[in-house]
Amino acid sequence: MSGEKIFYDIHLHAFDLSHPCLYAFARRITPVIETPLLGEIAGAITPLLWLSKKNEILNLLSVMERGVGEMLTLLQKDLQIPLRIGDFEYDEVVITPLMMDFWYTLADQPHINYKFIPKSVVPQTLDTLNGIADYWKQNSTNGLKKMRPLPFMGLNTQRCHLNGQKVIPDVNDTKLESLLDKYFNSNIAKGNIYPGTNKFANISNNCGRFNGELEPSDPTNLTNYFAGIKLYPGLGFDPWPTNDDAEMEKVAYLYKTCADRQIPITVHCSDGGYKIGNIKQAEDRTHPRKWKHVLERYENLKINLAHFGGREGIFDYAYYRLINSDAGVSSAGSWTETIAELIAKYENAYTDISYAGHYDGVYAALAKILAKKPNIAGKIMYGSDFSINLLDSFGYAEYTKQFLHDKNISDNHKRMMCNANPAKFLWK
User: Fold this and answer.
1) Backbone conformation region of residue 340, classed left if phi is above 0, alpha if psi is from -120 to 50, else beta
2) What gap in Å lies between CA 152 and CA 21, rounded to an integer?
């Protein structure tokens, strides 16, 4: 099979209800304002939000009540629609389920007697790898269009330590060097863009082979189960922690290792999403300006600054900042413009338009951006943000068809978004 016949969804999740921190999940789907007066107003709005989004929330919960294997089976059935762009049809799908480390010390939980506690990423990891194995064994030869789930590991360096650093039990007791060596062995990290005897084949061939052990007698058995790493600043990870020497040492080790071994990183990069702790601090950690510091020092780092700044940022960039750039409109604070600058400047920096694709006009806005900034066409990838996108989208097939049938983006750009660009990001 030719690599150009693969349709990629570079950004989605396969959480069940046991995986997210429910405190973060509740904040995601209901308004939470920290200012007391605004908080009271938000509390009054919440029942109206439930009424307006009741079917969408129930649809999401229905999916999350399933196990990972069942969820993947749902997706495969939804993907039996014709995956056609112009006269070109894709005959296989690669998805990258992004795990997330929801561990975080929840310091401020007013009016709650039984406090939420930090949640380990280990059960989510086991469920995901076992779910992928179950799905693959049951569905890889069912005659339907093949869908390969190639997961990203959820990581928060605050849960790790480096050799020689102080270890705090149940806080940072994972050794970062060992973790990266176990799952991303340097001997196999690099590969070519198309299937064959390379990184794609090594990882793809492991679908269905996980035996349920995260600590096997032969640690090399775990190499090639993950296609990359997922970071989430809104949940506590700080991309450039200037006031914490120990944490800076850890992120520097992570970036150097990922750059040297060409391990892809996807990081949440919009003002929406999950946020724990102080909202302003969470947004400051998430803003793409943080990654300017990182990429200045690790130019070869392969990174996806996901969501392209979000729907509002895309509209603002397309219809205001680009149009008025000659008039000296400042880009300070613009999420989308900052991401556009970074992906234009750095060869291995990318973005995706996950979740935003559901909204009317987003693809038209993206087409305007590409017309003005053709140099970033090779850096934008297709993603769905399933299953959290069910808060606004009816289903996976519906979201996918919105992209396939859109008339604003050229067929060539769409093919780049769902094939050539994610293939470079993952395998080059």
Assistant:
1) alpha
2) 19
Q: Which domains does the chain have, with CATH numbers?
A: 3-427 (3.20.20.140)
360-381 per-position pLDDT tens digit: 999 999 999 999 999 999 999 9
Cβ–Cβ contacts within 10 Å for residue 11, how many? 28
> Can you tell me which residue has the tokens 């995986």?
19
Rounded Cα distance between 132 and 279, Å, is: 34
**Token code pair at residue 282:** 């969470």
Nearest one of 332, 330, 337, 333 to 315, comparing CA atoms: 337
- pTM score > 0.85 for this model? yes
- Chain-centroid distance, C-alpha 143: 29
Residue 61 Cα distances to 8, 15, 323, angstroms? 25, 10, 41
Q: Are strands 84-85 and 88-89 parallel, antiparallel or unpaired?
A: antiparallel
Cα–Cα dist 299/347, whole Å: 8
Collapse the DSSP code of 7 into the 3-class scheme (helix H, G, I; strand E, B; otherwise coil) and give the result: strand
| pLDDT tens profile 182-209 | 888 755 445 433 344 478 887 888 887 8
Contact 291, 303 (CB under 8 A): yes
Token digits for 181? 């060596």
Task: With beta carbons less than 8 A apart as the criterion, state whether 144 and 80 touch.
Answer: yes
* CA angle 143–198–266, rounded 5-degree value: 85
From CA 333, how far away is CA 330, in angstroms rounded? 9
